Amino acid sequence: MHVPEEIRAEAAALIDHHALGLWKPNDADRRAAVALFRFLETGLPLTGEQIRSVLAHTEPAAEMTERLLNLLRATAGLLDDAPVAEGPAGRDAVDHVCLLLDALALSRLSNR
User: Fold this and answer.
1) How many Cβ atoms from other residues are within 10 Å of residue 52's Cβ?
2) Fewest C-beta atoms under 10 Å: which of 65, 68, 74, 78?
3) pTM (predicted TM-score)
4) Does residue 90 contact residue 78 with C-beta atoms inside 8 Å?
5) Are 47 and 79 in contact (CB under 8 A)?
6) Of 15, 4, 10, which Cα lies nearest the Cα of 101?
7) How does DSSP assign 37-68, residue by residue?
8) What pLDDT digit, counting tens, does each position of 2-52 carry?
9) Can you state the percent helix, strand and coil of the chain, rounding each to 5?
10) CA separation (Å) from 81 to 11, 14, 65?
11) What is the rounded radius of gyration, in angstroms, for the C-alpha atoms of the chain?
């Protein structure tokens, strides 16, 4: 799933499921989102290396929701392919992933 349109669609579906309460992110999901959100707060673009670093250094990835884990891995792969990632479809896909990360990170903060 390194195709931008598929990444965008999956991110949008997870955003919808989260907003509707159909998907309840677990603690591992939230911790990964918060770690990636911290990268986003710098104002610099997200990179595949940052995603892989978070996946390697947070809780074991096995504890994350499979759909989110797969989405983040696919996004890292997309970001590694600069020409595709920088195109309109790639930017839209990454924007949707960032919106999802924002939603998860903010939900964590509001649940403290």
Assistant:
1) 16
2) 65
3) 0.89
4) yes
5) yes
6) 15
7) HHHHHTTSPP-HHHHHHHHHHSS-GGGS-HHH
8) 699 999 999 999 999 999 999 999 988 999 999 999 999 999 899 999 999
9) 75, 0, 25
10) 19, 23, 25
11) 13
